[in-house]
Amino acid sequence: MAKHRVVLLPGDGIGPEVVEAARRVVDASGPDIQWVPMEIGAIAFDKYGDALPAAVLDEIRKCGVALKGPTTTPIAKGHVSANVRLRRELGLFANVRPVKTVPGLETPYGATDLVVVRENTESLYAGLENEVAPGVITSIKVITEVASRRIAKFAFEYAVRWERKRVTAVHKANIMKMADGLFLECARQEAAPYQGRIQFDDILVDALAMKLVRNPGQFDVLLLENLYGDIVSDLAAGLIGGLGLAPGANYGTDCAVFEAIHGSAPDIAGKGIANPIAMILSSAMMCHHLGDTDSYARIRKAVRTITSEHREWLTPDVGGQGTSRSLADAIVREVERRRTEKVED
Ligand code: NAD
């Protein structure tokens, strides 16, 4: 019997292309995984009338881990996002999105090495919208002490574990004095036990956006509520070269789901040019979570080698002429070449 069972969710759009690439890279690296493929997103909706069938949630609860591709959510109509439901149903309260300059793909913004820690269960994603009068809609932002304390504590524990130096709470408490005020107050209180080990400060989200673009290297761990976390992580991904490079993970108490920041990219779906690196780096994070730190380091090293020494294999979004397939092949070969080596991350 395999050591790990992992639910494999290709999703839709470019999902199947990049998830297949990541699966091949993980298998080449060595962890003993039995994959459990299941359908979510538009494909599942068309087949079962549900973009997130209950059987998928049950299987993730059983396995504890999933590798997930993006899913499409209809804009301004249609079903509730399968992603939002997945995170809520499985209690995946922490969304971790490391954004780090990729060797060989340096950008004008300067060296970046930051981690977005995003609260994943509430804020405006609560989906509480009402038409209170014709032409008047309210959308309710929910911030609770329990969730704010939980994500703040997670950010500080993450900082300790990954040897980061500083946590910056991001908010708009000058305007949303109660909601963002509570988020900030919780972060301050959770910071107290870490004094002397992890620095703590805070910043308005608008000022953060400007400072990120001027000098992203000044930030370390960013702690944000749900919506700001989503926007800031896309912005940060842009600073290192785009969404095709930025991985992510969703952690709860019992389960973890690994997925890139990017969406289903309908504009390039099926063309074979989606960049699989973000999903491959997400799968490296999954290997680390499974306790296989060698595969984590090996996959990351293989990606770095290809981006810095073999730009001809890269996909068009980062200036190459390769395809998802040729890039994945190159990374698989690099991982296989290093399979017996001890690699330092
Ligand atoms: P998107 O992230 O899909 O795409 C934004 C831009 O980045 C597009 O130009 C796209 O071509 C490009 N891009 C994204 N990933 C890329 C990759 N791997 N390689 C090369 N280029 C890449 O965002 P969008 O277009 O705003 O959203 C499309 C759909 O995805 C929507 O239905 C949205 O709800 C959904 N979405 C899903 C998730 C998720 O499943 N976690 C996350 C974000 C958006």
Quaternary class: single chain
Q: Specify Rg, calculated over alpha carbons.
A: 20 Å
Summing up helix and strand content along with how strands pair, one would put the structural category as alpha/beta
Q: Mean pLDDT, as a whole number?
A: 96
**Can you count the beta strands?**
12
Structure explained in plain terms:
With 345 residues, the protein is of the alpha/beta class. Helices cover 40% and strands 20% of the residues. The chain has helices at residues 15-29, 42-48, 54-63, 82-89, 145-161, 179-191, 205-214, 226-240, 277-289, 293-309, 324-337, and strands at 4-9, 33-37, 65-68, 94-100, 113-119, 123-133, 136-142, 166-171, 199-204, 221-224, 249-251, 256-258. The chain has a ten-stranded mixed β-sheet with strand order 2-1-3-12-11-4-5-10-8-9, with helices on both faces. A two-stranded antiparallel sheet has the order 6-7. Helix 6 links the parallel strand 8 (166-171) and strand 9. Helix 1 (15-29) packs parallel to helix 11 and helix 5 packs across helix 6. The radius of gyration is 20 Å and the shape is globular. The two termini are 29 Å apart.
